[in-house]
Amino acid sequence: MKLLLLLTSTFPFDGGEEFLENELRYASGFDKILVCPCGLKENSVKTRSLPQGVEWIPLKRAAVGRAEYASLFRLPCVRAELFDLMRTKRLSIARAHETLFFMKNAMSIFQALIREELILSADDVTVYSYWFYDAAAAGALLAEYLRAKGKIARLVSRAHGFDIHEERSAHRYLPMRSYLLKSASAVFPCSNEGAGILRSRYPQYAGKVRTAHLGTPDEGCRGGCRTEFHLVSCSYMVPVKRLPLIAEALRKADFPMKWTHIGSGPMEGELKRLAKSLPPCVRVEFPGAMKNADVLDFYKQQEVSVFVNVSSSEGIPVSIMEACSFGFPVIATDVGGTGEIVKDGQNGFLLKAEFDPSELLGMLEHVRAMEEENYEKLCGNSRSIWRSSFSAERNYPEFYEVLSR
């Protein structure tokens, strides 16, 4: 049996990893496809259905005790990582602890995986980790274990943002990078920017790194409309999304407009308080969190003038892909791989990572006031850029063709 084992954080449970809902529609080339959520909690709830031919298995992880924690030092990969940190003068108590905590989680996942008869019965296993982090390390251990039993087994992994950018992590360190790259047959960052980082930091593994953009489905091209100037943002309400900067920009608006933010999160109360201080010409709507299908329905039904994303860090935002697929112009910060989908002056405008809110307001005023012909070009270019590089119908079949070889 040729098996694809997809290791996720929680999908198809709880929230997050919504992009997989679209991707798995195109999964093919295997006799069986299993989704294994590695980070479930006791109160996790299944929230997404899986397409026909895709199943999920509950992972029965056991707690790792002190004795097992100490035994991590016997793993050659852990000793090699700690030695490399020492050799490069990067070793600290915090980084050593992070390495051990990382591998403790990886071992817990690995030990649960090798208790699953469905996995052990397969002759040919592709372990596909959605994140280039501890589940990928568990996948590396599993592939090695299966090969020792005479099976065909390999590890591949996607990589997004936090699992690439070491400078964003608490100790400016991501554990076990060399081990993961050495163990993987291929690593697929979701942006050229991410691929470039991995190739430059680990040139000995550059040949394993290949960009694989995510994609969104074609739900039609409504195009932007400025009958009522309507800016839309869509994200989880957390600090990295910097939504208060949008509110700050709109405080000085002197023309009629509506701002809709789709999503909820820890900062919802603060955003609603800030919205109350906006001038009367600015109407604000917070419809809350929506299922992905409902977001797409919103774009089909509503007249949207411009989509805005002001995050401090990103991979390539799927929210921007969705907006571009509908032909909406985009204003976004030039962070991560955002510049791969927002081409400054072509389908929208890029802000510096550290921008003044007045700059955002100026761009909104520019989009509002531009000639209709130029505005329509922005809309058309958004759709064209999406179609050429970020279409699910194009990207995912190509990705699974590579995985199934």
From TrEMBL:
* E.C. designation(s): 2.4.1.-
- Signal sequence, renumbered to the chain: none
Domain called Glycosyl transferase family: residue spans: 232-368
- Glycosyltransferase recorded as keyword: yes
Tell me the keywords, alphabetical order: Glycosyltransferase, Transferase
Q: Which top EC class is given?
A: transferase
| InterPro entries per record | Glyco_trans_1, Glycosyltransferase_grp1
| A GO term for molecular function | glycosyltransferase activity
Name of the protein this chain belongs to = Glycosyltransferase Gtf1
Source species, please? Caproicibacter fermentans
